[in-house]
Design goal:
The protein is of the alpha/beta class and about 170 residues long.
């Protein structure tokens, strides 16, 4: 019986897996409608009092996505005032969805990464994720990888789609 050889493991392919950088519990969302009367009406005095009484420590060292779950029409200062309370603790505050905050997280991570392990090597940008990596993050990652790699494929080693090959 012949020995089974794992040719993928023996190849020079390097896997870039965005799941390795997934924020898990580092990105949270915060709905401002909780401080509105019936979820819709902003009463400034009550709003300010509730913000002042709020325990902000759960947002320490987090990326926080501020949003309003209702169709309330809010002045811009309402979100700015919430940000005033979050700013001393949160790493970053985003006005928008949790997905936008996750994209922002990845952008910051990808900008800080050292890509020397991928220099002039064939790279697989792993595509099958167990975690909800936003599609836009793959677009951010490919822009970084094509600057250093020999080639980039998307997916898994067994069924990768070629995306980029450096010119000789």
């Amino acid at each position: 019986m012949e020995e089974i050889i794992n040719k993928v493991a023996q190849s020079s392919l390097v896997v870039f897996d965005l799941e390795d950088y997934y924020p898990d519990d580092h990105v949270v969302d915060l709905d401002v409608s909780q401080w509105l009367a019936e979820g819709f009406l902003l009463r400034e005095t009550d709003f300010r009092a509730q913000l002042k009484a709020m325990d902000w420590t759960p947002y320490e060292d987090k990326y926080v996505a501020l949003y309003c779950a209702t169709d309330a029409i809010l002045p811009a200062w309402a979100f700015a005032l919430v940000a005033v309370h979050l700013a001393p603790l949160a790493l970053k505050i985003i006005h928008g969805s949790k997905e936008l905050a996750i994209i922002e997280w990845y952008q910051d991570i990808l900008n800080k990464l050292d890509y020397t392990d991928y220099f002039e090597k064939p790279v697989i940008l792993k595509g099958c994720s167990k975690k909800a990596v936003p599609n836009q993050v793959y677009t951010l990652a490919i822009q970084k990888l094509i600057k250093v790699s020999k080639s980039v494929m998307f997916g898994e080693a067994c069924s990768a789609v070629p995306l980029y090959k450096a010119k000789k």
